[in-house]
Amino acid sequence: MSKNCNLFVINYHINERWQSIIINILIHITLGGLTMIKGIGHLALTVEDMDKSLEFYCGVLGFEKAFEINDDDGNPWIVYVKVGAGQFIELFYGGDNKQEILTNQIGFNHLCLEVNDINEVANHIKMHGLQLDLEPKRGKDQNFQCWIKDPDGNRIEFMQLVPSSPQMNC
Known about the structure:
Elements: H1 3-13, H2 16-31, E1 42-46, H3 50-60, E2 64-70, E3 76-84, E4 87-92, E5 111-114, H4 118-127, E6 134-138, E7 144-149, E8 155-160
């Protein structure tokens, strides 16, 4: 079968997003190239109170505590929280100096977590007695979003992607 016939079969049986992914994989395999970057492996945060952070990330958001790493003296050092396959949030013990929040500060801004239903997430967070910083609304990219801060003040965006958004069409 020729390459054109293979692409026709792909085109006929699957949606455009998967078609694009499969075509890129086929091109990648055909060219014999290696991708240097596979994805984002983890986000690392130093926390003030590990118990509060684990309650938030695991108890409220539903992530799983995957494993812990001790330092060279056997003291707790890092807790890995599993977000998804191969994706983690590293929580480091020992934070005691909160960063001053400045307008237009350079550096880390926020963590965005993709969700299926923005209203379900917002209601779930409220049922745990937490307050959203921003109620669900449509953003400039047409996706739905709401915002909260973790126990250390790190901003977290929840985003429900819509088919017409730029993220779904690039």
